[in-house]
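seq:
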Amino acid sequence: MKRRDIIKGLSILPLVGGSTGWAASLHDTSKPSPEGPKRDFFKELGVTPVINAGVTMTFLSGSLMLPEVLEAINSTSHDFANMYELQDKVGAKIAEMLHVEAAMVTSGAACAILLGTAAAITGTDHEKIKQLPNLPGPRAEVIMQKSHRYLFDQAVTTTGAKIIDVEGAEEMEKAINERTVMALYFNAAGKSSISHSDFVAVAKRHNIPTLLDAAADVPPVENLFKYQKIGFDLVTFSGGKMIRGPQSAGLLFGRKDLITAARLNHSPNEAPIGRPMKVNKEEMFGMYAALKAYLERDHKKEWEDWLQRTKRIGSQLESLQSVKIETVIDPGPANAFPSLKVTWDQTKIKIKPEEVLVALKNGTPSIVANGKDDHLTIGVVLLRPDQVDVVAGRVKSILQQAI
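struct:
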């Protein structure tokens, strides 16, 4: 399922579910704080909290940060730090965890694409870094498969580079010239005319660095290691999706010389193209804590918890006439996790899936789910444990009223 396709079919809010794994560690807001009532900023600002029965989307604030991440943020917010040193130390730890030469924290995966492209153009040349995106002479060129063009490739052209579309390895080979600085592979593209390995092989023959965008491509956890083994020089993942770090953070990792150049194009350096995309110290500590917690998680147990959630919601909905449920697993590579597909006879339950989505979004609490003309899709992986039955009950109530 592509990120752009997901955006089209969404409804909205926070989360509900089983008792183990990923979501079990989310805050249980049903329990009052022993310190008394807290200031409600949602209420104070008139912002509607949302239960996310969909997938990780930026406009829905990504995911919910792990308790370990919040602890890292809170515990480091009371002192200053030298940002160069912090990026050094955090980057080294992340590189060690991911078994790569070097790594850095970025302000999301889109920033990582921009910084990776900038690194390929400028290297460590301070004059070029200062001039980007207005380098004199012909524009730098970045090769992409035509089927891989997507909304986020604007991060490439923001550096002043030009994207060259190709189809197939032979066309890619012919497109490489003295202006070619990089080749970008969008991992979640629906179709590829060049395999991962062939893409890397062509680029390496011409000493052209490769960058793979895998922003939403965990689970499985193995994807964090898979693509550098294939030979990609740079890889980026979003920090605020299923890794559950800060929403505005991301990871860029791979070849040390390219990460060094990417960092020179980033804050806290004062004049490069990446200066507006700064990452604060709390996000760096938080991203380190998130990745560490993600790698240490019991992923099999988490997966079983997700499956149990689909069964739990499905068992409540199946009691209605003509309702059929099915646990479906997106093949990925993005959003490759279980969700619940719900269908019904619309002559007996007289409501369309899109009308259910609107009712969920406009109700209290507001719930966002997905769907198409013939079915409703309920995501379970972003639900807090206390929200699973809330979502099931709301969907069941909406369908019951349409009988």
